[in-house]
Design brief:
159 residues; elongated; alpha+beta
Length: 159
């Protein structure tokens, strides 16, 4: 069976506009609580921009520490998967602990070497997110008026 992407609705008027995603989410939640058919709505972010928040300086030591943490989790997962095939109960603990230890060591090594190979081009850690200047709640044309009226009631409650 072939799946096709949903077709873009032709006429979906804006029934509410909010400065934050949480506000738009609260509006759709209110519509849902009011038994409105929320499957006929959407939240559309406009004027998108990427915001990269710098978390701090990234040194080789921090890169190694981050690598050790992620390597330990991966090693623990591998140890857990291998323990399914282990013969005795004591082997399960040994496999998990050795997976954790080897994962941490190799993760630290890869983190250190990986950062060292960047040559100082990116010596900081950051987190990226896409944010919008405005979030519009839209609804299909035949239910848009009902949605607007419900959201007016929400605005009255919040004032």
């Amino acid at each position: 069976m072939t799946q096709h992407p949903p077709t873009a609705p032709v006429d979906r008027p804006v029934v509410g506009s909010y400065p934050t995603y949480e506000g738009a989410q609260r509006a759709v939640d209110f519509l849902s609580d009011s038994k409105f058919p929320v499957e006929r709505t959407a939240i559309i972010g406009s004027d998108l921009k990427m915001v990269e928040t710098v978390l701090g300086r990234l040194t080789r030591g921090r890169a190694a520490l981050a690598g050790a943490g992620s390597g330990a989790w991966f090693g623990l997962l591998i140890g857990l998967l291998l323990s399914v095939f282990a013969a005795g109960d004591h082997n399960v603990v040994v496999l998990m602990l050795s997976g954790l230890l080897y994962g941490a060591v190799f993760g630290a090594l890869f983190g250190f070497v990986g950062h060292a190979l960047t040559g100082g081009r990116r010596d900081f850690a950051s987190r990226s997110q896409i944010v919008a200047a405005r979030y519009d709640v839209v609804a299909e044309a035949d239910v848009a008026e009902e949605a607007k009226n419900l959201l007016i009631k929400l605005a009255w409650r919040e004032d």
